[in-house]
Design goal:
Blueprint (H helix, E strand, L loop, with lengths): L3 E4 L5 H12 L3 E6 L6 H7 L3 E5 L5 H15 L4 E4 L14 H29 L2 E6 L12 H21 L4 E8 L23 H16 L5 H12 L7 E4 L4 H17 L1 H8 L2 H9 L1
Parallel strand pairs: 1-2, 1-4, 2-3, 4-5, 5-6, 6-7
Length: 287
């Protein structure tokens, strides 16, 4: 059976490839962008199978209106893809309040608004699949990525809670964690900007060069291949809660998780000390 999709951030990058892959196999798509005119070629190619929508995910009212319109237009929604987002670069000290709030408004609250708008429709039909685009940066952290990590780590947490909340409604949830892909930068800001600081810092500038080198050395994945992989996921009866797209960051993630477990294990004595009198607690619990 064909599926009906609602995809944010459809004008470029992974989102665009997701939309094209769904349409190419006969699915229908409500595709959103901050400027729906950027989707005109999709309409010209696929006609009524695509519904272009002007939606800025930071505008809660626009999100709810767009989801409602998509559901009314197609009659149902099967796959919700929260793809819209960007990566703010900068040291914590450098970031302005506006940069921090914009990052969270787009990457985190934008995703929340879409989920809240879609859930009543999915619950009513007793089915659906919410796909949340996180990032390898939602699992590990690096210098100069604090704002982006803040937003994506929060996305990971709220989506894991969401999966447990909606499972009994017949709604599936998957978090996609891409590594590096060969996509246009879009809204991503200048990584050499130093925010509100009056002077540049040799230390921060050095970190920028290291980050640029790391990014340059990561193998760039093929967005079209990622889209084909997503099609397989949304067709599964029992999809994974989490899946990495690309392998470049997998060794770093394994190392980071092993280090966390070792640190917690190494400091178990202090953890017990912080709990207080364990023997007394155990006696009280038994009584």
């Amino acid at each position: 059976m064909s599926k009906t999709w609602f995809v944010t951030g459809s004008s470029r990058g992974l989102g665009r490839n997701f939309v094209e892959a769904a349409l190419s196999r006969g699915d229908k798509v409500a595709a959103t962008a901050r400027n729906a005119a950027d989707l005109a070629d999709l309409v010209a190619t696929h006609g009524d199978a695509v519904l272009p929508l002007d939606v800025d995910v930071t505008d809660k009212a626009a999100v709810f209106e767009g989801v409602t319109r998509a559901n009314e237009h197609f009659g149902r929604l099967d796959v919700i893809v929260n793809n819209a987002g960007y990566a703010q670069v900068g040291a914590i000290e450098e970031l302005t309040e506006r940069e921090l709030r914009d990052q969270v408004e787009t990457n985190l609250f934008g995703a929340v608004w879409v989920v809240q708008a879609a859930l009543p429709h999915l619950r009513a039909q007793g089915s659906g699949h919410i796909v949340q685009l996180s990032s390898a940066a939602g699992l590990i952290a690096m210098p100069l990525g604090g704002a982006y990590h803040m937003s994506k780590w929060a996305v990971e947490g709220f989506t894991e809670a969401l999966a447990q909340e909606v499972a009994e409604f017949g709604i599936k949830v998957t978090v996609i964690e891409p590594g590096g892909f060969a996509t246009r930068n879009g809204k991503n800001p200048d990584p050499l900007a130093n925010g509100h600081l009056a002077e540049t810092s040799p230390v921060y500038d050095g970190l920028r060069r290291r980050l640029a080198g790391l990014v340059a050395n990561q193998p760039a994945g093929d967005p079209a291949a990622a889209a084909r992989a997503l099609l397989k996921i949304v067709d599964l009866d029992h999809p994974p809660l989490r899946v990495l797209f690309g392998q470049g960051f997998y060794p770093l993630i394994k190392q980071a998780y092993a280090a966390r477990l070792k640190t917690w294990e190494d400091w178990q004595d202090l953890s017990a000390e912080a709990h207080g009198n364990l023997a007394a607690d155990a006696t009280t619990a038994r009584s």
